[in-house]
Known about the structure:
Distance between the termini of chain A: 42 Å
Oligomer: heterodimer
Helix content of chain B: over 70%
CATH topology of chain B: MetI-like fold
Order of helices and strands of chain A: EEEHEEHEHHHEHEHEEHHEHHEEHE
Shape of chain A: globular
CATH superfamily of chain B: MetI-like
Strand order of the largest sheet of chain A: 6-7-8-3-9-10
Amino acid sequence: MSEIEIRNLSKKFQIKGQQIVALSEINLNIEKGDIFGIIGMSGAGKSTLVRSINFLEKPTEGEILIDGVNLAELSARELRKKRSEIGMIFQSFNLLEQKNVLDNICFPLEINGIRKKEARKKAKELLAVVKLEDKEKAYPSQLSGGQKQRVAIARALATDPKILLCDEATSALDPQTTEAILNLLREINERLGITIVIITHQMSVVTDICKKVAIIDSGRLVEEGDVETIFESPRSDAAKELISGKTVGRKTYSELEAERKIRIVYRENSAYEPIISNLVLKFNAPVNILKADTKNVNGRAVGEMILGLPDDKELQNELIDYLKEKKLVVTEVTEDV
Amino acid sequence: MFDAKVIQMLLEGVRDTLYMTLVSTIIGYAVGLPLGILLNVTGVTGLRPNRIVYRIVDVICNIIRSIPFIILLILLIPFTRFVVGQSYGSNGVIVPLVVCASAYIARVVESSLNEVDHGIIEAAKSMGANNIQIVFKVLLVEAKTSLITGFTITTGLLLGYSAMSGTVGGGGLGDIAVRYGYHRWQADIMITTVILLIIIFQIIQYIGTKIASSLDHRKR
């Protein structure tokens, strides 16, 4: 049984008499202990999706099962109990501005009727987990973005949840802080075994921390699987766009145009060998590097490169065969780089 | 400048004015605060939107606030007589003051609560908070600075209105100003009452602003 089961989920909004489909027929299983990324462009419906998991948004159709329990069948009281077992953090942190750090972390415990003394003890332990012991009396306005998100994480963990939902949790942070927060999330996942669901529009967040990913485009689930597999050979347009950058609406530089373009993905082992140089030397043929990038996928360097090949058809096939022989993943690229 | 009798009268005026202002503010909040919460909760973006309840409270508040206070004083005379047995004197004017204040306070409270960031409410929901907890532990706490500012403004307004009630024999500084200044042309007494009102108003405003800013943790 999956920890989170999303069955045939659809969500429609009525805005000024017009029906807007935010999500349509989403099916997704998230296993216990996973770090699961849900990625999509803004407006794709990912925030609605994550809010459906704890029923902040009630689905129009379909079901959400947490540990096999159908949320729609719970009473209001049972649902609130269930929600307290699911932590959530947000892009805008959403800390209580008039409470200090310690009281913010105590807040979910207070709501659940835990005695103040006990709550404070727990809050102090959590402050140590997020490494903010010296800030317990500070107010949110005195903290930086990264510190605020740490407090929010501590607060979300206060009720010992089994699941942590992260709604664009790093989108308001700079790259260094993002990395620190992601490391903290990974640590929490490993130490406490909490299932983490990460909503983001940044591919780097997914490749950095997630084991599995689902790609949402216009309210539909277009692709799902292991991060490495999808990074190497994305099938959907949305996945390609998220991995290689936006292609729509950008003019191609005429000098970058080539008749046939391929995308190659290489890993650490192949990254050591100068494959492109060898290729050029061996075939005595010019290849045009149109784009090259190395990304960190779950701690391993994975690179992608887009090559423009010479016009000769036969030569093209020879080059591709050579690259495949070197165990690189080769895919054709039809759209503009 | 004044003999002991006049000074005695002015002091009593101050006492009556403070009495009317404070009592009507307190009772006004006892009625207006729950109404303001109700408006916020049943509003379109509230915790429990309810168009009918919202409309009813909304319209009542608007009607009361659209009637000039001096007219409300007269309109409510039968009601006042029914409630406190007399329509004049300090206790008599407290009734219209409370009616007017409640409608005003409901609106002030509603707008203070509307300012609370929706994300914070959503976070509380995600922790499993129920609506009552959200109102008392999130909305009222997060909006406290704005609520205190609103309280100060309301008290200032009621101070002015209590003076206005002098025209129907409400007692207090307003009453003195009308009787001596208007009917008897004793400008010195009238000016003194005006100065006293200004001083009281300044003190209320000063204390209110101080408390509000000392309790605010948002900026620093």
